[in-house]
Design brief:
transcription, Arc Repressor Mutant, subunit A, transcription cis-regulatory region binding, Tetracycline Repressor, domain 2, DNA-binding transcription factor activity, mainly alpha, DNA-binding, 10 helices
């Protein structure tokens, strides 16, 4: 990759990070491309070279939000491994994501914008649903293997997510609570797995 390309990549990342900070601090409506350019220490023209509009820039940030949850999708169901161990690892990956400061910043920006723009919220919920599919797939595969009870995998996945997010997402997003420490993370993971398997285990 030529040096010019690396510089372009660095500028693009600086623009994205500046936009995240602006959206987080000021909200979508107040944030302008001028402010993003100033915060990123690049020209307004450079910002527009990378992103044609504020909407496009915000869409890129949302895309990064969903991509940052990709880790949970990388874990495929393994029929030769104990279900409880796999589920614990799946929940642990989710917990790691929810304790990532960058992810939480992006989530705050996205949630704040949904309050002001319901139509944008519908699009984001649809995209989030696609990303959550990884857990659905794992549950469906475990059910097909006879290791979990037959049930709607989307409903079961939603319950599992709620067990985690009640401690490691919503209190931090809505009440400014600090991230969970390691001991509390383990407690939430173990409890969520136990409760889920008490309902769906065979």
């Amino acid at each position: 990759m030529p040096p010019a390309q690396r510089l372009t990549d660095r500028k693009r990342e600086a623009i994205i990070q500046a936009a995240i900070a602006e959206f987080r601090d000021n909200g979508f409506e107040v944030t302008s491309m001028d402010k993003v350019a100033a915060r990123a220490a690049v020209s307004k023209r450079t910002v527009y070279n990378h992103f044609a509009s504020k909407d496009e820039l915000f869409a890129e940030i949302l895309s990064q939000l969903w991509e940052s949850s990709q880790g949970e999708l990388d874990m495929a169901y393994a029929s030769d491994q104990p279900v409880d161990a796999q589920l614990r690892e799946l929940v642990r990956l989710k917990m790691n994501m929810l304790n990532n400061a960058s992810f939480m910043d992006l989530a705050r920006v996205a949630i704040a914008e949904t309050i002001h723009s319901p139509e944008r919220a519908r699009e984001m919920v649809a995209r989030l649903g696609e990303r959550e599919e990884g857990i659905h797939v794992w549950i469906r595969a475990a059910q097909a293997d006879g290791k979990l009870k037959a049930a709607d995998p989307a409903f079961a996945a939603c319950q599992l997510q709620a067990l985690i997010k009640a401690f490691a997402f919503w209190p931090q997003i809505t009440m400014g609570q600090p991230p969970l420490d390691a001991a509390m993370q383990r407690q939430v993971v173990d409890s969520a797995v136990a409760m889920f398997l008490a309902r769906y285990g065979v």
